[in-house]
Target: VOC domain-containing protein
Amino acid sequence: MTARPDEGKHVPDHPIGIHHVEIGVGDLDRSLDFYQGLLGLQRAEVPEPPGVRWLSAGSALLKLVETVSGDLGGWINDDLQRGIRHVGFTVGDVDLQADRIRDAGIPFTLPPLDAVGGVRLAFFQDPDGTHLEIIDKHLQYHKVSSPELADRERAAAEARPRTAGPSFGHVAVTVDDLDATLAFYRDTLGYQVIGQISQNQDPRGFLLTYLQAGESVLEVFTFTAPTTPSPWAPEANRHGFRHIAIAVDDVDKARARLVAAGARETVDGLLVDADGIPLRPVDGR
Model:
């Protein structure tokens, strides 16, 4: 029997959330021109070893790591491929921001359009192929699990100025089994389900489930159509999405809980969930 999204077994006293997303880039200066110069993100006050830059994106950080000879490691722009799919930024007006992106010569993988759920969005890629989204307004969920969180999103969208530039909103992931994913992220990490959007017109049987992950959101894609495995592997020279860092109160205890819930340990302290999504617990105190 399929569990309801809001049927949580245990919510930790201190829910943990997205701290940063690490992205591999081929040319740090070129990427700073893109993320700072074009998107308007700010340098974060974080110690930076050579080849690393931290950017403040609102509710979370981006960590850019220069890997000159890397590639996307098998990642393709197909949401049926499990793993990390994109980072989404909220903006005041998608078309206003899209004009700036278009004027900079950046092509759209999906031009601005009105989407199911009452939002407007567009997709594009950074200079190394990392997939990004801009989205405005607030989601009108088909099924609401937390009216309080949905109302908070609505209030934030209504207060956002039209000229507001990109601010970190969510990380999207594709998974094979929604029940297993909820057991991992909701029951183990305490990420509360906000609601769901059903893409009934999509022949792939596309369902989106949204979980509150600290001040950001984890957007979970599931399909009735078959999905393909994540190609992620811990290559040091990987471009694109390298991992999601999650802030926790106690790194060792969080790691033990995640491993007990099915994550496997890889190199350099990274964990990987059942769908090939790389996670790094970090101290959020």
